[in-house]
Predict the structure.
Amino acid sequence: MERYETGIKDFTIRRTTIDDTPLIYRFIRELADYEGLLHEVKSTEEILRKSIFEEKACKVVIAELAGEPIGFSLYFHNFSTFEGRPGLYLEDLYIDPKYRGKGYGKKLLQFLAHEAVRLDCKRFEWWCLNTNTPSFEFYKSIGAEPMDEWTVFRIDGTTLIDMADKF
C-alpha cells in the first residue's frame, strides 16, 4: 500500500485497497450528510467496490492521523480538448469536522495537485456547492478560481433513459 508523508506530524495520505470499500462508503455518507444530501446517496459498498476497484473508474486516497482515517479524496481524469491533455477532476474531498482547520484538507489538495503535475494533467478542477460557504472560502484562499462564466448541465434519471431510448 502506497503511503505518503505530508510534512504534518503523524498525518499521512495513502492509496486505497479493496478492503477500504466500507470506509470509503462511510466517508461518502458523512460528506453527503454534511452537505444535507444524504437522501441522494444511491451508491452501496458493492457498487463502489465494482466501480473503483474492478472498473477503475476513479481513484481514492485516505487521509490518516496517527494511523486513524480522518478523511478521503475521490478523483478521476477528465479531458481538455483545447489542451489536448487529461485533467484531474476532484469529485469529493472530506475531512471529519473535528479535524478541520488544521491543514489536512489543504494537504490533500496539494497531494492531488502533485498527482496532476506528475501525470502531466493541464488542469485540476472540482465543483463546490454555492451554499457550502466554508469550503468556497477555503478554495478561494488557496488560489482556486471560481468559473462563474460556466453553467453545469445535467441529464439523469428518467430524462437520461428517455434520451437514450430515442437513439
In short: Residues 21 and 80 are 30 Å apart (CA to CA). The first strand starts at residue 3 and ends at 5.
